[in-house]
Write a structure and sequence with these properties.
Structural class of chain A: alpha/beta
Strand order of the largest sheet of chain B: 2-1-5-3-4
Helix content of chain B: 25-40%
Largest interface: A-B, 32 and 34 residues
Number of strands of chain A: 14
Largest sheet of chain B: 5 strands, mixed
CATH superfamily of the largest domain in chain A: NADH-ubiquinone oxidoreductase 51kDa subunit
CATH class of the largest domain in chain A: Alpha Beta
Shape of chain A: globular
Largest sheet of chain A: 5 strands, mixed
CATH architecture of the largest domain in chain A: 3-Layer(aba) Sandwich
Radius of gyration of chain B: 19 Å
Shape of chain B: globular
Strand order of the largest sheet of chain A: 2-1-3-4-5
Distance between the termini of chain B: 27 Å
Oligomer: heterodimer
Number of strands of chain B: 9
Number of helices of chain A: 21
Distance between the termini of chain A: 90 Å
Number of domains of chain A: 4
Radius of gyration of chain A: 24 Å
């Protein structure tokens, strides 16, 4: 494919779509499918068939429209409306746009859930079919790659990415431009680009949704990265637990290869870039970059000490650029709009948008994308609809098992990398778990420690044995058997893990404990000293009276 | 080869470029405690016992992997490091069944020596008492995973020195254990050459010789220096 044929596909798809009276976009990512989205789509398809309107109404799948708690979601492109909690027998009414049947189940673009969102990563979700490459191209897809290989130099791309101020979306927030430059400046002839899609935080499904809903955006971002840093081979490392995402990536790679958008001659230029898929076997630690590299190499998925860092010596010892799914998904937009205009979105020190997976004790759970720096209050109360009636907001956990909690007094804090780390938590990859007055913070710490204990690879002693003992102490506390001396042990062990662990898993495993101790010490005291769980969550048996 | 001058524990030390802090300290008589490191084998940086403080660096660094640099200031035995080491040994003692009185390596065990050198006189953590199966199917050697600290010296010596790669690690976290081949019993392992190097490098009583009493069971690692020198310098030194 070249510039001409890319534009031909684009025009043809536009013509095809303008010949339709409506496109019924059925959410086809895991959340809505598990809520019965498949049957809904089949019913609508059947209804269209019975009405003989196959030529004018297209029924197709699409990416995540966000409000997962009210799935299955279906969007009518003509009406620009999202229908929630659609059942198969709603098909007729939906096609007639009989809104009386959808009382309270209609989401217009000005619905509180949508109005404060800004969609860059999820721009195509609800608008394109992830399994049709022409649909992505019709929305301007692969134009950034075309510009890259025909007009731009690697240096120009590095400059744009640096100017955009984009920071790694995997959690640590390292400036993407600097990372790219490190790889680009390395004189090695053989380099790799790796997309880290091993998203494993409990309650987080941002990357999975992007891959299921708009896989070509990630492929395009990776190809641009390959051009900028001088790599000819890319790998997507995906979780084995996301079979749908894997299927969509496979389809997308095949399509892009067939159309000449990746492969031997990208868009008829001299640039070659292959992308292959590697599937993990379910280890959380493989999201850590050195463990991920070991896993791609076919070794046991264990981290190795850094330095050397992957930009210096990564996959098979060659310079390797590793970025998160969401980081790559930002790249086409940055090339299209220019680094400077991208930098004007979001917070000055962390430009762009961030996708959060809203979960836990909140009315509307699902995926939201907001400019970085949006306050937690806006995300939870305006977009998320607040905590369930009769309860009070207590805290929100960000960064999953590596992060910490944000208590109520920081509700107005802007959600950006620096503000979050100042109060002892982190942006993380985007998991946002909401707790209310019925949630116990000691039990929350216990839950995350159990996760870290199960996911520790076992290589270094502090993490392997330390998480077991930290979990033991927290279990003791939630059973009402905690001792005063346990506070010392918690502090000592947390310090050991944070200072001596080999990789990020162990280094950050104590964070949920330290953060809940910092903001909710009184709950720990109540468990240990009064044998009482203030939230009423932990089952603490009353003390047995001693027989006289 | 150029020389680097640095300071370790207040002493000025010269070291070869590319040498690790651990080796440079050892050469000048400063012995940094360690468990997974063994001269002649690659370093996984797994036990974290040899971590040291380097001035100007926020994070502790494993001395077995960190290379010396000019004017580096290293501290190997601060109070914070000592308490970290004690805690790691305490964790190890609680993790598996380290009962010295019934162990064939009593009196010659590196974990025992380290615990007494660091003054670990009691363990504050709940003992886990795992029940791993003991493998005594081999004619001469035995494996008791309940005494294993997962230093992976056996895995490395078998792969790097003997070239058999019989050993590996299976499972993860606290369920990690060393296995032979595809988790077969030692007696049935087809790749094991029976050389016994793994037994000699094992720091605890996890790998042992079957026909030795507590008084006789001593581990001899002189073969490592002999083989590694021959391989790297093409020089046969006498044992």
């Amino acid at each position: 494919m070249n510039a001409e044929s890319l534009n031909r596909v684009r025009t043809a798809e536009h013509d095809r779509q303008s010949g339709l009276t409506d496109r019924i976009m059925c959410c086809s990512v895991a959340g809505c499918l598990s809520a019965g989205g498949g049957a809904v789509r089949a019913a609508i398809q059947r209804e269209v068939g019975e009405q003989g309107k196959e030529a004018t109404i297209e029924v197709c799948g699409t990416g995540c429209m966000g409000l997962c708690s009210r799935g299955p979601l279906v969007r009518s492109a003509a009406a620009d409306l999202v229908y929630a909690e659609v059942k198969p027998d709603d098909a007729g009414a939906l096609l007639r746009h009989d809104h009386s049947r959808f009382e309270g189940r209609l989401l217009a673009p000005d619905h509180p859930f949508y109005i404060q969102q800004r969609r860059i990563i999820l721009a195509n979700s609800g608008r394109t079919d992830p399994e049709r490459i022409a649909d992505y191209i019709s929305q301007g897809g692969y134009q950034a790659l075309l510009r890259t290989v025909t007009e731009l130099t690697p240096d120009a791309i590095l400059a744009e990415v640096k100017m955009s101020g984009l920071r790694g979306r995997g959690g640590a927030g390292y400036p993407t431009g600097l990372k790219w430059e490190l790889v680009a400046r390395n004189p090695s002839a053989l380099k790799y680009v790796v997309c880290n899609a091993d998203e494993g935080d409990p309650g987080a499904f941002m990357n999975r949704s992007v891959l299921e809903g708009d896989p070509h955006r990630v492929l395009e971002g990776m190809a641009i990265a390959g051009f900028a840093v001088g790599a000819q081979q890319g790998y997507i490392y995906a979780r084995g637990e996301s079979p749908l995402a894997i299927a969509r990536i496979k389809t997308a790679i095949e399509q892009a290869r067939r159309e000449g958008l990746i492969g031997g001659r990208v868009l008829d230029s001299s640039f070659q870039f292959q992308i292959d898929l590697r599937i993990g076997a379910g280890a959380y630690v493989c999201g850590e970059e050195t463990a991920l590299i070991a896993s791609i190499e076919g070794k046991r998925g264990q981290p190795v000490p850094r330095p050397p860092y992957p930009p210096e010596a990564g996959l098979w010892g060659h310079p390797t650029l590793i970025n998160n799914v969401e980081t790559f998904a930002n790249i086409p937009t940055i090339i299209e709009m220019g680094g400077a205009s991208f930098a004007s979105i979001g917070a000055p020190t962390s430009p762009g948008t961030k996708v959060f997976a809203l979960a836990g004790r909140v009315e509307r759970t699902g995926l939201v994308e907001v400019p970085i720096g949006t306050s937690l209050r806006t995300i939870l109360f305006d977009i998320g609809g607040g905590v369930p009636a009769g309860h009070e907001f207590k805290a929100a956990q960000t960064g999953g098992p590596a992060g910490g909690c944000i208590p109520a007094q920081y509700l107005d804090l802007p959600m950006d990398y620096d503000s979050l780390s100042r109060i002892g938590t982190m942006m993380g990859s985007g998991g946002l778990i909401v707790m209310d007055s019925s949630s116990c913070m000691v039990d929350l710490a216990r839950f995350f420690m159990e996760f870290c204990m199960d996911e520790s690879c076992g290589k270094c002693i502090p993490c392997r044995a330390g998480t077991v003992q930290l979990h033991e102490i927290l279990c003791r506390m939630t059973r009402g058997e905690g001792r005063e001396s346990d506070f010392t042990l918690l502090a000592e062990l947390s310090g050991l893990l944070r200072e001596t662990s080999l990789c990020g898993l162990g280094l950050s495993a104590p964070n949920p404990i330290l953060s809940t101790l910092r903001h909710f010490r009184q709950e720990y005291d109540a468990h240990v000293r009064k044998r009482r769980c203030p939230a009423g969550h932990c089952q603490i048996p009353p003390l047995k009276e001693h027989a006289a | 080869m150029s020389v680097r001058t640095l300071e370790i524990d207040g002493r000025t030390v010269t070291a070869l470029e590319g040498q690790t802090i651990f080796a440079a300290a050892w050469d000048s008589g400063i012995q940094i405690p360690r468990l997974c490191h063994l001269g002649g084998l690659t370093d996984p940086g797994a036990c974290r016992i040899c971590s040291v403080e380097i001035e100007g660096q926020k994070k502790l660094q494993p001395s077995c992997l960190t290379k010396v640099a000019e004017d580096m200031v290293v501290r190997t035995n601060t109070d914070a490091l000592k308490s970290h080491r004690k805690l790691i040994v305490e964790l190890l003692l609680a993790e598996r069944n380290h009962v010295c009185s019934v162990c064939v390596l009593d009196g010659a065990c590196e974990l025992q020596d380290l615990a007494s050198a660091l003054g670990v006189d009691h363990v504050r953590f709940k003992p886990q008492y795992p029940k791993f199966e003991v493998d005594i199917s081999h004619a001469r050697f035995g494996l008791d995973p309940n005494r294993c600290i997962l230093c992976t010296r056996c895995v490395r010596v078998c792969d790097e020195i003997e070239g058999a790669h019989t050993w590996d690690v299976a499972g993860r976290g606290r369920n990690s254990r060393v296995i032979l081949d595809l988790d077969e019993s030692w007696g049935e392992s087809e790749s094991c050459t029976g050389c016994g190097k793994c037994v000699q490098v094992c720091p605890t009583g996890a790998l042992f010789l079957k026909d030795k009493t507590v008084a006789e069971m001593r581990k001899d690692r002189s073969f490592l220096r002999y083989i590694v020198t021959a391989r790297e310098k093409k020089l046969w030194i006498s044992k």
